[in-house]
Amino acid sequence: MAVTPSGDVLLFGGFGSSMPTLLSDTWLFNTSTNTWGQITGSTTPDARRFHAMAATPSEALLFGGLGNGMNVFDDTWLFDSSTKSWTKVTGLTSAPTARYHHAMAATPSGDVLLFGGGSGIGLNDTWRFNTSSQSWSAVPTTLKPEARAEHAIAATLSGVLLFGGNAGGDRWGK
Fold first, then answer.
1. In the predicted model, what is the mean pLDDT of residues 115-131?
2. Which CATH superfamily is domain 2-172 in?
3. Has residue 173 got a pLDDT over 70?
4. DSSP character for 59?
5. Whose CA is closest to 14, among 54, 65, 59, 60?
6. What are all long-range contacts of 140-149, with beta carbons under 8 Å and residues at least 24 apart?
7. What integer best gives the mean pLDDT of the chain?
8. Mean pLDDT calculated for residue range 147-164
9. I want to staple 165 with a disulfide (CB 3.0 to 4.6 A). Which of 20, 134, 148, 174 is the partner?
């Protein structure tokens, strides 16, 4: 889930009530009325689970995840809360590799930072999504956490904080 610029909470996909059914539905929780409303009639990302979403100053960003047939996604989507529609970001010259169980958070500058996850192997790379140019770039780091999945990232006043996660075991396999 991610909070939209309008203050509503965006929910996309995940497991259905009977596993292993995956969903591709979009819901908004109106924080003023405390009600859920389903968004229909627009293009949506493919059904998936274990993807990550984060708020940007003008939209919500979705990246990656694990789909039906164990398909690992490397796609980037933006949700515009004013038009209530998804747009796939295309024409990217650089982007993170396909992954799931990664985490993302907005930085104080309004960009989104992505770290880690898995796609058959554990990943410890860091990527920044520039919200102005709608482009990804790898963040070179000399000191970085070990590869992990299922971790959490949260925005702080000066950056982002990463905590926990699974650093191996049987989680890297599909």
1. 91
2. Kelch-type beta propeller (2.120.10.80)
3. no
4. S
5. 65
6. 145/115, 145/116, 146/122, 147/116, 147/118, 147/121, 147/122, 147/123, 148/116, 148/122, 148/124, 149/100, 149/101, 149/102, 149/116, 149/117, 149/118, 149/122, 149/123
7. 90
8. 89
9. 148
Burial label for 32, CB within 10 Å (0-12, 13-18, 19+), is exposed
How far is residue 55's CA from residue 112's CA, in Å, rounded to a whole number? 8
Using CA atoms of 64, 76, 134, 61 in order, give the dihedral in degrees to the nearest 10. Answer: -70
| Res 94: pLDDT | 96
Of residues 34, 26, 25, 31, the one with CA closest to residue 10: 26
Edge-first strand order for the sheet with 60-66 is 52-55, 60-66, 72-80, 85-88
Q: Which amino acid makes up residue 156?
A: T
Domain positions in the chain are 2-172
Which residue has better confidence, 142 or 90? 90
